[in-house]
Amino acid sequence: MKKCNIYGLTAIAFGLGMSAMVNSASAKTLDEVMKERGLTQKDVLAAAKTYIPTGGRDEFIALSSGGQSGQVFVYGIPSMRILKYIAVFTPEPWQGYGFDDESKAVLKKGSDINDTTITYGDTHHPAFSETKGEYDGEYAFINDKANPRIAVIDMKDFETKQIVKNPIMSSEHGGPFVSPNTDYIIQAAQYPAPLDRKHYPLSQFNEKFRGAVTYWKFDRKKGRIDEAASFSLELPPYSQDLSDFGKGPSDGWSLTNSFCTERYVGGIMKGRPPFEAGCSQKDTDFVHMINWKKAAEVAKAGKTTKINGHNVIMMDTAIKEGILFLIPEPKSPHGVDISPDGKFFIVAGKLDTHASVYSFAKVFDLIKKKDFAGKDAYGIPILDLKKSLHGQLSVGLGPLHTQYDSKKCIVYTSIYVDSQVTKWDYCNLKVLDKIHIHYNIGHLVTMEGDSVTPKGKYLVALNKLTIDRFNPVGPLHPQNHQLIDISGDKMQLLYDMAVPLGEPHYVVAISADKLKPKVRYKLGTNSRTDKRSEFRTRPGREKIVRKDGLVHVYGTVIRSHITPEIIEVEEGETVSLHLTNVERAEDETHGFAIYGHNVNLSIEPGKTASATFKVPNSGVFPYYCTEFCSALHLEMQGIMMVRPKGTKLENAALKEGTKYTKTDYDKQIKNNVATQGVINSVVKFITERNFKDFPTVVGLVTDATDQLNFAAESKKKSENFAAKGDWQNATLWAQQWFQYQVKTADMGLRAKTYLEQNGAKKVK
Ligand code: K7E
Ligand code: CUA
To answer: Most exposed of 47, 236, 468, 755 (fewest Cβ within 10 Å)?
Structure first.
């Protein structure tokens, strides 16, 4: 009986009948499908391990660098379904990033470099914020290697909140990595350059060129980096590379390794051997070992030099204060990864088959006894390699990065040249297993692998070359992330995920239940500052105000209208549009696009987004909502009228194309009354059930109630006009009343279906 009502409503609402759907999918057996598609038992097992049924959730959420796209992207593990791109260093229209005034402010602060506006980034290493060495799911950070910057992403809304420019580096790589409580975020330089950013001839390379490492202070309360409280250390002109923070017994220390400690300056065009020869001649390079806790005190005590307005601890001071040491490492190393217990670190050299396991206990002992093997050209004490090592193991050709398992002593190292992952025991120095990947792996990631308690289970291999893995799409291939099951003794390849973005260097993965993202903003939020927007507007308070040479449009968006629907301006004026999405419903985002002004907004429920743009030419410019938000989404439109300069605003009455009579009015009212009957039956169904036990349904009911209140307001207007015999307005407001009824029913039916599918109980 109730079902009939529902279909009846659909028919009323959309003028369409709905025929029963017959499921005609052929009833093939699993065996038949396997045979037809040529699948093995192993394939089917892998599929079963990664498949998430509709509506299901992934166990882990991965945050991946988007490489040259300047973005970060989010996917689920084990399904490898991409969930979101997060715009960071690059404008991205879907999110209105770099199009609305709010995000432009974030982007602009970090993008004006060297009198040039930078509109891309080369992102490498995402990192989650940590509390006591555990991922806490609050923030994430990402670097730009090309134009040394760090961005802060808030995991409450997956939006970029801040971009800071490194004040002294002209190239970077080793960052961001966070200290165990996220007090500091590390960023290490890569290619040496003068820290004051002036020009010095290459003949002064040893004297004037420098490396560096920056410790960015993170203000957890504000959720922002505190630039003034951040500091750097001047380092020799080696090419610093990856970094990591100590934990447990090594807490307070950070490591940054390096290559090209030969300090070669290149010159292939001058007939000199190229960089790659000059930078790989020596057998060892150096890990920089820095006591950052002590360095922070030294910086606080003012023992710094201001370079470009930024506090830098110079090398002489660092040596004198005993906070900087060098440890030799096999040549051209890449990853430096500290164990979850903080007792060891593993370095792998790209040009060596060995992974080297260092013991912090041994290293600390050498430092304590001042047992040094020598000094580098800048006077930094060097520890003895052999005396620092726990041991070395040959793991394959071209080892790069290492990740830790949940099981004690077990690690996975990416082997670039051999295209393999090697599983080995770093305590007892034994290779346990190897698996082929496709092809030339860079980073790899285990679940929560950087934390003090890695979760193991899965490993993702981030491969540099894809070659023959996917359907060809031209010379530029997608990237390949391969999911590997590491729960057993033998690694098992489960899935290939094509990544159609930049080259993702690194991924971090967090237990999904640690993330608590919101579904809506507090009404009128500037999402980039997390504060109420000064431009927020409530329904009924929309206005157009000319102030300080700008035409401020304070508007709202809600299914299915943009208010105002007509914006009248004069050629040459500058419009500052502010739209607040006054929806409370989940997923009811509205967009805004207008012809010919490069304006594109994404306005999620509760958000206020602005766009300021000059109107150079007179004409008629339609605008519309770009998200298919409701049945009358296409009608969510408006028009900007730009009259020629010096002309007067026309005040003529607006003339519609159609006239309405009492007959039209009566017909509409009859329809509305019938619809109300259906709504009542749905309301009855819901309120007779324990719907309050289902937060999703409570949200839908709240939203439906909103819509019903709007319907009541339109009903009143309609009746007032009818009382005056104004059938034109009476009919149109009756139609608007019906539109709100349709939205109410839409919510109500969704709530009803949810209750039916999730086992709600009848309570009345
Ligand atoms: Cu190895 Cu930037 Cu971490 Cu690329 S880096 S792989
Ligand atoms: Cu709002 Cu379409």
So the answer is: 468
CA 442 to ligand 1 center in whole angstroms: 6
The pLDDT tens digits for 666-711 are 999 999 999 999 999 999 999 999 999 999 899 889 889 988 999 9
Structurally, at CATH architecture level, domain 525-643 sits in Sandwich (2.60)
Q: Give the number of whichever ligand sits closest to the CA of residue 176.
A: 1
pLDDT at 652 (0 to 100):
63
Q: Is the CB of 590 under 6 A from ligand 2?
A: yes
Token couple for 632: 């009358």
Domain parsing of the chain, residue ranges: 60-88+123-514, 525-643, 662-757
Q: Give me the residues of the chain with pLDDT under 70, please.
A: 1-27, 651-653
Q: How far apart are CA 268 and CA 518, in angstroms?
A: 54
Q: State residue 666 phi and psi, 5-degree precision.
A: -60, -40
Quick one: pLDDT at residue 14? Answer: 43
Q: What is the mean pLDDT of the chain?
A: 94
pLDDT at site 84: 97
- List Cβ neighbours of 403 (8 Å cut-off, separation of 6 or more): 337, 411, 412, 444, 445, 446, 449, 454, 459
Residues 503, 464: contact at Cβ < 8 Å?
yes
pLDDT of residue 474: 96
Alpha carbons 596 and 623: distance in angstroms, whole number: 10
> What pTM was computed for the model?
0.92
What is the distance between the alpha carbons of residues 390 and 375, in angstroms, rounded to a whole number? 22
3-class secondary structure, 336: strand
CB 735 within 8 A of CB 632: no
Taking the CA of residue 124 as reference, the ligand 1 atom at the shortest distance is: 2
Q: How far apart are CA 169 and CA 194, in angstroms?
A: 8
pLDDT for 248: 97
Q: Pick the residue whose CA is nearest to atom 1 on ligand 2.
A: 590
350 lines ligand 1 (CB under 6 A): no
Task: Please give the number of the atom of ligand 1 that sits closest to the Cα of 401.
Answer: 1
Determine if ligand 1 sits within 6 Å of the CB of residue 259. Answer: no
State the distance from the centre of ligand 1 to the C-alpha of 244, rounded, in angstroms.
13
CATH code for the domain defined by 60-88+123-514: 2.130.10.10
Query: What pLDDT sits at residue 25?
Result: 55
How far apart are alpha carbons 133 and 181 in whole angstroms?
6
Residues 718-752 have pLDDT tens digits of 999 999 999 999 999 999 999 999 989 988 999 99
Sheet containing 344-349: which strands, arranged edge to edge? 333-338, 344-349, 354-359, 389-394
